[in-house]
Amino acid sequence: LDVSNNHISVLPASLGGLRALTNLNLSANKIAQVPSSFSRLTLLKDVSLRDNIISQVPGDWRSLQSITRLDLCHNRLTAL
């Protein structure tokens, strides 16, 4: 799923319902926070959240053990 460059600022909690998702590109948007439902996407392998305004990565992401590439470049991260 590629929804990059769309001025998205809020991700719906329903995103967690896309459980078969393996690739997700949310780069170059205006996302400040990722919903906790994101942790239900256990089949994700490739995730790009590049070029957003995210300051923190939720701790429950530890359940996403299938991820082989996670791009968080150019955000406002203060802690992982």
What is the topological layout?
Blueprint: E1 23-25, E2 46-48, E3 69-71
Parallel strand pairs: 1-2, 2-3
Short description:
The protein is largely without helices or strands. It has strands at residues 23-25, 46-48, 69-71.
Labels describing this entry:
little secondary structure; 3-stranded parallel β-sheet; 3 strands; globular
How would you characterize the overall build of this protein?
- This protein has 80 residues and is mostly loops.
- The protein has a three-stranded parallel beta sheet with strand order 1-2-3, with no helix packed on it.
Residues in helices, as a percent range: under 10%
User: Proportion of β residues?
Assistant: 5-15%
Largest sheet: 3 strands, parallel
How many β strands by DSSP? 3
